[in-house]
Request: fold
Amino acid sequence: MSLILQCLLDSVLLGGLYSLMAVGLSLGFGITRIINFAYGEFIMLGAYGAFFCSTLMGIDPLLSLPLVAAGVALIAAIIFQLCLGRALRAAPINQILLLFGVGLVLQNVAAILWTGDARSVTTSYSLSGEQVGDITISDGRVVAFLLAVLLIAILLMWLHRTELGRATRAVAQNRQAAVLMGINVTFIYLLSFALNAALGAATGAISSFLLTITPFMGFHMLVKSFAIVVLGGLGSIAGTLAGAFVLAFAETVVAYYVPEGIGWAEGVAFVVLLLVLIVRPQGILGQSEGVA
Amino acid sequence: MRSGSVGVGRSLAALAGMVLLGGILSVAARADDTVRIGAPLELSGRFVTYGAQTKRGIEMAVDTFGGSVNGKKIEVLFRDVQSNNQDAVTAFIDLASQQKIDFMIGPVASGIVAATVPAWRQSKPLWIVPGSSSTQLEDGMKGENLFFHTYPWAYNYHDGTAEALAQVVGAGKKVAIIYSDGGYGREQLPWAKEFYTKAGFNIVATELVREGAADLNPVLQRLRQLKPDVLVGIVQTIDGIQLAKQVQVAKLNIPFLVGTAYPQLAEWSGALGPEAADGWIGATTYLPGMDRPADPTHPKLFPAMHDWEAAFRARYNRDPEFLDVTSYTSTMLLLLAIDEAASTDKEKVAAKLASLDVKTMLGSSKFAPTPGGAMHQAFGQMVVFQRQGNKFVIAFPADAADGKLIPRK
Reply:
């Protein structure tokens, strides 16, 4: 019984982290219709930002998160102005290759600047846990979950309650109509790309005390985020959240109950993805257009 | 007009021929006055730490040697294999078969080295591998006279550790093993099972984990129910960080936690913090601060350990790791062999290298055949250590021991 409860708890906590990780990618795609293949590197930059804030200035990742997210958003805005903004009308494959190239450059710059050494942030909560009977509750993962919920709530409020957020959704729903209504579409694209990077950086800052930081950590997270976004339905934030929890639950159950399950967990999760896409090609809550 | 164009064509052909000839002659001249060493290494990707250490060691050895051997400039051609099998094969073929380089050092990660073996067979340069503990490599290179291995094999990690633990905890205790799904974990698992069983332990679980897994808690929670006395984590460094973190969070109360090479690494302990790293046991050929004297014949090339570490810190502004030392020593042995053979003929250099017997920072350089059939193996002797507070305590072998293994608090 305790193993079942532990499994459920781990699924929920992992789902929270996956949600935050994928929601930035989903938002970016929903608006610009460009899959940001440099997204993993924004996560990596966020993780390094939090690491250096912690080691050099003694700032806890929870406090440095806004600063790190803003810094990475600025980098993303510069990348947009220099590269992506010029390729908005290019063929999708060109945009993907461009962003993939940007990701490789960021990855290798990080390797040159900070070496390939594995790092991690140690905080009072990252290595502590509570024991309730036979159930272990990781303080770090609870903190990460709560932070993910908070950030996603802020994002949704921004999208639904602010003028700029509504303009962003309008661009996602109908670009031509948004232009006719006087919305500066290029600015919204830039904003959504920067926001996408900021969410990636926030994921990185949270990962900095949960996972191991290396210049190459981003690619794996990009693949996982992409799978979640496809599972939930491209461009749907609600679908992304559902996809994140479905994937987290599938992985955790397999890891707990299948012999040598951690080795199989990711494979089985992708089988779930395949099955969902066969039954419902648009994803769990996928729509043809727009940000939900 | 027509004859003019023919004339221009002939001139261009002659020019092209001269350029080609010049190129060939310059390559020949360069080959004649340089000793070229190929170094296909993991300079990016997930094994970049290993590649970076190896590169540092090679560069320091070449500079310490003076940059030339037998009056010829030493040129090391580094290639980044990107921690990728296909890129490693391409780089190895380029260096060994296309550029005809007779001396190769690296790569080091087990899977990457295994992938390059067929490429090595194409031209068979003298090949020093300062990494890879895979016994499949040992088996695959059986009887090969130009292959030199300067790193322990998989079984070297577990024989001493199992014996040292058995002396402390006694026979009949429970061991759980976590191993990664890559070649590293799968390769070592049978050896760990064999040696721990032989030492009198009862193996109660062998749990597979995926390389790079973000959450190991499912495995740890299953192990909690088995209450093992010893947990052995056969994973690479990055996974070793995640494992140690989650063991700490889960409060498993396992008295003895055993890793492979990673518990000694500053990179590993730095990512964990002192509390989570404390008490971990590992096996290695090199520990910072080990007391090893200089070689009496070549004290500049193989200085006392403390002197070498000081020189390394002055050069790189960081502490050396085990592959820094291993690759320095391996490169230095190769250069010394070329020097003493007074030749760049790979067969003559191999013969000289096999016969060298100098005192290095890793112990005697004497190469010897292995039980698995590899012809030339050096530095397979390991010490078993435990992190106790801020220091390493060596617990095995008895003649090197300065303390005992103690249960983790």
In short: Residues 1-6 of chain B have pLDDT under 50 and may be disordered. Chain B touches chain A through 42 residues (CB under 8 Å). Residues 177 and 206 of chain B are 5 Å apart (CA to CA). Chain B has two domains: 34-152+292-378, 155-284+382-400.
